[in-house]
Amino acid sequence: MSRDRTTPGSGGESRAAPDLSEGPACPVPLTDYAHVLLAHGGGGKLTQQLVQSVFLPQFKNDMLSPLHDGAVVTLNGVRCAFTTDSYVVSPIAFPGGDIGDLAVNGTVNDLAMCGAVPLFLSAGFIIEEGLAMEELRSVVRSMRSAAGRAGVLLVTGDTKVVDRGKGDKLFVTTSGLGVVRDGVEIAPARATPGDVLLINGPVGMHGIAILSVREGLEFEGPVRSDTAPLNDLVRVMLEACPDIHVLRDPTRGGVATVLNEIASSARVGMQIEETAIHVPEAVRGACEILGLDPLYIANEGKVIAVVPADAATAVLESMRAHPLGRESTQFGYVVADHPGTVLMKSSIGATRVLDMLSGEQLPRIC
Amino acid sequence: MSRDRTTPGSGGESRAAPDLSEGPACPVPLTDYAHVLLAHGGGGKLTQQLVQSVFLPQFKNDMLSPLHDGAVVTLNGVRCAFTTDSYVVSPIAFPGGDIGDLAVNGTVNDLAMCGAVPLFLSAGFIIEEGLAMEELRSVVRSMRSAAGRAGVLLVTGDTKVVDRGKGDKLFVTTSGLGVVRDGVEIAPARATPGDVLLINGPVGMHGIAILSVREGLEFEGPVRSDTAPLNDLVRVMLEACPDIHVLRDPTRGGVATVLNEIASSARVGMQIEETAIHVPEAVRGACEILGLDPLYIANEGKVIAVVPADAATAVLESMRAHPLGRESTQFGYVVADHPGTVLMKSSIGATRVLDMLSGEQLPRIC
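ok -> structure tokens follow
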């Protein structure tokens, strides 16, 4: 096995203590963890650092580099989108869905965000010994129903069982395959100053739905996950404007994280209006009680589109005419100033930086 | 959620007790489990029953039906192979490999068994909080090295972290994408009476390697996993005979399980010679001590080919000329008699049925 790369942090516990014997030294960088933390899976800065320090150095290639929701590869001249996501949500069933439809919709959406028509899915099940067969059946029925709704076929799969206490009921990994539409070229790096930011409705529902059932909390009214397949919505959007620059679903890490990733990838700035993003009353209430920011909460049925200004009205109208886009809004735009930084004008008129979180607000929400 | 199917066994614990109040009744079928057992993941009859009772009723479609190592799908006229496998091997490192090269080789091999040229892989990582970063780096290095050896690119991935005690260090799910060679048509159902069975070398090494390190056992000499990418070996075999009928890698469940699956799928019988299958001395010794049958032990670098008789010599020669096929043998043939049943002539001349196991001999070997 080749060991040709330096391995920072491999010697110490948690973080290596700075060596003070040689006088003042730079602080040990925060990336320098000897063990994986829960926060490394939270979708924030630590996840990014894990990917950049552990995975990318080994797997750097043209297709992986864009760090999009999926890869676009060419098979005998056909442009295909190929994606994968592991689902470890806890609990496996929650208001509005379960790990089954979440896994199908999530992978369908990742393909849609590549501008592809989703066609085929695979599913790998890692089951903890002792899972009730009826719980498994129920998840599989949800997957069938979600696949039917999205118009995709599950064509291959795998099942593993791990000992009791070595898993957590059920983990599902779905991969997806689709054909990218002709003339469509979606990439985070295409965000261009002047582009307009659109979103198809209220934010924060999925994360708060999970949290409410997990912690047994009751907020002002029930919050249901927004999990939904976005491929048909994306279809009408691309019919309205095939030149949409970027599509991303703000899942783990929420709207704020996705905007930061696009801004950083395209080296552009972003300005958004807090009042133009709809946060349902129950989500807002839950966030206030728990000290969370709804812009960092995961969604599973939302798409952020970065659209050329002259097409914004047409795309927005196409979204509002679709059942999954009735509450679509334009909530900001791309600017040349402050590249890599997202600024938000708050409801009271102040402007603040919407930074990436370093860890997770809510672990295991997808 | 639709609940349109009966759900046997959902009411009781483990197995429903037979209702004796109405006089003699049929025994409760063995499939009727209320909870998932470790054995459901063992690759034997129980795994088959789980797939057939829980997954297939929901996902039956033309591509899924063959229950092959992967699905062959058509994307804009291009025949692609698409596969997925979740790896939960424990421990994650073992003599001859680790979960990283196992996951890459396993998926490369599943694509090769479809007659495809493997091209692109995805990887989903489910990491238990607290995993040493250096262990993760080491696995990722193995994956890079295995991908390089097989000539495939890892193009997309996902990372999740679960709480301590809710996983087991690291689970990896790899999916693969490849293009099926023109004129090649590989399917278990194509096994035809008269066909010859070939295998590329000794069996049982992977399972015994895992067992030896897991249980701290020492056998007559060290046993290393045979994990290896078989795509180049399959390439030369298909050059020798593009009309190979079936290719399967005897992983979980071993040679015996794969032969039973092919025999059942093609409704043919099989006759094999025990003496023509090479079992290394150390594997044989370990099996004798532990009461295991080497023909049910997992391999990760072996291929079973079902080949038209007139091409057998050419294919066997092409295998023996390849570094991964030097010890290839012809070990049996397909017959019209006793469809669905595999008969083995033992070294002492007796003939016995090589049945499928109901559960697993060794859990979590891949």
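The helical segments of chain A are 45-59, 99-113, 133-150, 205-215, 231-240, 254-266, 281-290, 312-320.
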